[in-house]
Amino acid sequence: MSVRSKTLTSARTHYCPGCGHGIIHRIVADVIDELGIREKTVIVAPVGCAVFLYNYFDLDAYEAAHGRAPAIATGCKRVHPELVVFTYQGDGDLAAIGTAEAVHAAARGEKITTVFVNNAIYGMTAGQMAPTTLIGQKTTTTVEGRDPSKAGYPVRVCEMLATLEGAAYIARVSVSSPKNVAQARKAIRKAFDTQIKGLGYSLVEVLSQCPTNWHMTPLESVKWVDEKMTAYFPLGEFKVPKEA
Amino acid sequence: MAGNEAIAEAAVQAGCRYYFGYPITPQNEIGEYLSWRLPEVGGIFLQAESEIAAIYMVFGAAGAGARAMTSSSSPGISLMQEGISYIAAAELPCVIVNMMRGGPGLGGIHPSQSDYFQATKGGGHGDYHMIVLAPSTGQEAVGLTMLAFDLADKYRNPVMILGDGNMGQMMEPIEFTSAKKHLAVKKDWALTGALGRTKNIIKTLYIDPVILEKRNLIIQQKLRKIVESEVRFESYMTEDADVVIAAYGTVARIAKTAIKVLREKGKKVGLLRPISLYPFPYQAFTDEAKKVRDFLVVEMSMGQMLEDVKLAVCDRSRIHFYSRLGGMVPSYEEIISQVEKITEEVR
Questions:
Q1: Which end of chain B is more exposed for a tag (fewer CB within 10 A), N or C?
Q2: pLDDT tens profile A24-36
Q3: Is A13 part of a structural domain of the chain?
């Protein structure tokens, strides 16, 4: 497993030490390698920390405007139904500014896949409250901790999308331990399989650590994922294709 | 057929196979027509959840190498501005139809031309322009829609068909002559899966200002080429004119009726009608200003095209202005009385 995935380039990533993005990139790239679909896959990059992922993935790539990745993926997939099209989006991108695009891509049963990276914070803009910021969590815009009477409640995306008929596969995983990474790999593989079989929309939410903006060490941050995030965002499959 | 339907059929005949849109009056017939017509030719009609989503679906389809379009009316076009800026930045070809209605705000549903600035000067953030074509009749809309797809592909730039609610709704006979040959452009930049080639990337982020300035200059160079090659206008009875009316779209059509009546009365009146609003026919107005003493600019907006006429004419001729707003359409009688006011002053 030490060999670099064929789907990844040799570029050095800009991610901070202990960030989950590198692990998630590797998992997605490995799944694309396993499926042998590198030359028929298109990735839609978000706005946020992963905006440069087209430098790291050796795939045809769009860079979307903030939140619009599912609409761009829709346009591409409708033109090229034979391709595998997926979006890679963060919590601000998918669950705040791009909620409408995400919900309606799922409602349409758009045959695309979304890798949804939830780290409960705006990383690239340096630590503001995200739609998934936990109650009590300190951010640069909730310095006393998120107070639901002022800033509302964190959004559970999987539970919300699982109510939609068009959503075929919905799962939440984390990358906080080798065991969880293995689970994440299985879920992402299932999500791509769902698209390839034409069963509908698929999304895997990955709880990810952001040591920099959480002001924690990498070890503290994976512990925080396991203890705090998982308590509010339970791991598991929320919807699986009937056929599978 | 209605102007909206004529534009829709013209898009199909121009090889457009992908339409993404969100309903808004007075352009709904475009989407309604394409919802059954596109599947007939193996295309896709998709009703999006918003104009924002629609323009990004166009972004995705155009980036995938297809001829794609959307249509809307003023408030919806405002929502699309973010996406249009991204499309211009990424140099993706597409066609956007705006059947203008009265604004600002939710405004009304009646014809207007008050999105002229938004359409011709950029509209979204950053330095860019769409090519903007303004048909005056349903028949002309057919030709310009087909041209729009060719220009979009040729320059890798968004093209807007700028009409108004009147043109979209008006029923008139339309002729579709034998299908024209479309411009065939190799889109080796499109995203099709990186099969047997290096990957393609469609992006608009350039963090390094040195590179972003270069990107901007490339776009500006392209726009200069468009300005040199794609100016379109019509001169109507201007040869001997004392007064030249400047108007586009529906208003130009009404002005022609006024001119016929005025000519019968012996008044020497002509029309200079911009067909391309970007690039604007500045030179045609500058040349006309050498011959004519009075211009009358008539628009369904508060002096938007007037600014471009002033830029071209400077103080070589006198410029008069008449407008109706908020969905009111000037009648040919109103235009006649405006011209007569000018000719009486002259006497």
A1: C
A2: 999 999 999 999 9
A3: no
Compute φ and ψ for A15, nearest 5 degrees: -70, 150
CA angle A5, A9, A10 (to 5 degrees): 100
- Residues of A at the B interface, defined by Cβ within 8 angstroms: 38-42, 44-45, 51, 54, 58-65, 68, 71-80, 83, 100-101, 103-104
| A67 occurs within a structural domain | yes
Number of domains in chain A: 1
End-to-end CA distance of chain B: 45
Amino acid symbol at B194:
A
Kindly report, residue by residue over B92-103, the tens digit of the pLDDT: 999 999 999 999
Q: Which amino acid is at B65?
A: G
- The span from the CA of B21 to the CA of B80, in Å, is 11
| Residue A19 token pair | 């960030």
Q: Give me the domain span that covers residue A180.
A: 21-239
Segment A201-233, tens digit of pLDDT = 999 999 999 999 999 999 999 999 999 999 999
Residue A7 lies in a domain: no
SS3 track for B11-43: HHHCCCCEEEECCCCCCHHHHHHHHHHHHHCCC
Output phi, psi for A235, to 5 deg.
Answer: -80, 155
Residue A16 lies in a domain: no
CATH (domain of A85)? 3.40.50.970
Give the torsion sign (CA, A52, A57, A61, A65): negative
Pull the structure tokens for residue B44: 């896709």
At residue A39, the pLDDT reads 97
Q: Which residue type is seen at B18?
A: Y
B344 to chain A, minimum CA–CA distance in Å? 56
Using CA atoms, how far residue B196 sits from A5, B192, B201, in Å, is 18, 11, 15
- Going from the C-alpha of B161 to that of each of B14, B88, B116, the distances in angstroms are 14, 16, 12
User: Tokens representing B153?
Assistant: 């592909």
Give the alpha-carbon dihedral of A127, A133, A135, A140, to 10 degrees: 10
- Whether the Cβ atoms of residue B31 and residue B21 lie closer than 8 Å to each other: yes
Which of A42, A58, A71 has the CB atom closest to B57's CB atom?
Answer: A71
Rounded to whole angstroms, the Cα distance separating A138 from A128 reads: 9
β-bridge pairing A113-118 and A60-63: unpaired
- A80 with A50: CB under 8 angstroms? no
Angle at which helices B332-346 and B249-264 cross, to 10°: 60
Percent of chain A residues topping a pLDDT of 90: 97
Most B CBs within 10 Å: which of A43, A58, A60, as the mutation test of the B interface? A60
Domains in chain B: ranges and CATH: 3-229 (3.40.50.970), 234-346 (3.40.50.920)
State if pTM tops 0.90: yes
Per DSSP, the residues of B104-143 read STT--SSB--TTHHHHHS-SSSSS---EEE--SSHHHHHH
